[in-house]
Amino acid sequence: MFRAFGLNMTRLLGTLALAFLLVCVGLAQEQTSPDSEQESPSGERKADQKTSESNPGTKITPQQAEELFRDVDTILNFASKDTSLPIKHEVKRRLASREEVVSYLKKNMAEDKDVQRLRRTELVLKKFGLLPKDYDLQKFLVTLLEEQVAGYYDAKTKMVSLLDWVQPDAQRPVLAHELTHALQDQSFGLDKWLRRGAEDLDSKKDLTPEDITKDENSEAREAITEGQAMVVLIDYMLAPMHRTVADSPEVLQILNEGMASGSSDSVQYKNAPIFMKEELMFPYHYGVVFEAELLRAQGKEKAFAAAFANPPQTTREIMEPKTYLSGEHLPPLPLPDFKHILKDYERFDVGAIGEFDVAVLAEQYADEDTAHNIYPNWRGGYYYSARPKGNSSDLALVFVSKWASTRAAAQFAAIYARGVQQRYKDAKAASESGLPADLKTLGSLSGDHTWKTQDGDVVITVKNDTVLVAESLPSAITDQFRQAVLPSSAEKQ
């Protein structure tokens, strides 16, 4: 997985997205209810979601805070019934100011060891063209944090934080979400469970194909935790109408459309690059759809407790629940001998490129429809970036992907070639290639193609169902990767 965030970073920023997800849920509720005022599961009359927007300068009253504190237990009971996860002990709660919450989240960002790799990942994302070259990822994350801060559950302190500047009717659905995390934590030890899915490739000297495959585990587990919490949030809001996620697919569709557009007051999100939007939304958007499929196919036990006992391993399983339900297993791609081929280089970063990643690449270089058409054909992928020894500026890249067919491989290669032209305005084909001058219309690419750029050669080689991309490497080294990675002519597709 393109590791834009460490495990804790993803978990931390994930809570922030709820601020505008509530607006999306409000949209869904408006579409399914004729009334602008309803009774919530805890018994109070609940105003139309549009009227509950919060003013950061306005504090809730002591009476409202007291009622909200009492509602924690009522909502926890609702979440327990909705998930069949038991309540093992009371959840601690506190009322926090915006300043306290922002300070807490910033402190966690600063102390999390995974943040140390943020700059490294930023450079890799820029190499792929997923972030603009002048983009400041750290600044974006901090600004987004301040803009979108929402209620959260802290697995370390076992405490849920209520917000003194957000009206109670807006906080209750957030509580349904966050108290689901509390129940997950009580049954499975949330932080430890999430970390069991995190593969620390940085500390491994000798990488195996299995190591690369496991790199996607944490993203899949994150989608389980957030998808389950989103189910409870929506069920909580639909409860007055005696409906649930399982029997209301149209509500889920409206919700996900709302996620795609974002909240009207989320300036940072609206202005973010495609990759950042998709990365932030992945565990919510695809997670809740995955959980809904499990609920409809096999019921509550399969969707909640069993998903923790037997979690999906890849983003493909999350994005295509039928692959998880059928027990599909894709063998890991064999790896070339990076140490030998790149003996004069130092490893910079390495990771899996999963189905979600190729979907984002396709959306970035082409469009959303193209992405939806190509990503189900993904069958494996990884990247490896390195720098010449003694050179801290030049970054080389190797990207290998396997596809369901020769046709799909050629289609993805064309998409990536279109991206080369977008990233490098001076890109020129190294020889007569027969390709159109404007690659926007390119639908298929086969064979071997090289473009000259200011950062060195970009080579795309397609053979059978495999695509090899080599960037900023000498031709002799690229040749070694061709021999090591691409299937021989004797191999069948």
Question: How many helical stretches?
Answer: 22
Strand order in the sheet with the most strands: 6-7-8-12-11-10-9
Distance between the termini: 26 Å
Number of strands: 12
Query: What count of structural domains?
Result: 2
What does it look like?
The chain is of the alpha+beta class and 493 residues long. The chain has two domains: 7-325, no CATH class; 338-485, no CATH class. It is 51% helix and 14% strand. The chain is built from 22 helices and twelve strands. It has helices spanning 7-16, 18-32, 62-83, 98-111, 118-128, 137-148, 168-188, 190-196, 209-214, 217-238, 249-261, 267-270, 274-298, 300-303, 305-309, 315-319, 321-325, 338-341, 355-365, 368-374, 406-423, 475-485, and strands at residues 38-39, 45-46, 92-96, 152-154, 159-163, 345-352, 378-388, 396-403, 428-429, 447-453, 456-463, 466-471. The strands form three sheets. The chain has a seven-stranded antiparallel beta sheet with strand order 6-7-8-12-11-10-9, sandwiched between helices. A three-stranded mixed beta sheet has the order 3-5-4. The radius of gyration is 24 Å and the shape is elongated. The model is unreliable at 4-9, 16-25, 34-38 and 44-53 (pLDDT under 50).
SSE inventory with pairings:
Blueprint lengths: L6 H10 L1 H15 L5 E2 L5 E2 L15 H22 L8 E5 L1 H14 L6 H11 L8 H12 L3 E3 L4 E5 L4 H21 L1 H7 L12 H6 L2 H22 L10 H13 L5 H4 L3 H25 L1 H4 L1 H5 L5 H5 L1 H5 L12 H4 L3 E8 L2 H11 L2 H7 L3 E11 L7 E8 L2 H18 L4 E2 L17 E7 L2 E8 L2 E6 L3 H11 L8
Parallel strand pairs: 3-5
Antiparallel strand pairs: 1-2, 4-5, 6-7, 7-8, 8-12, 9-10, 10-11, 11-12
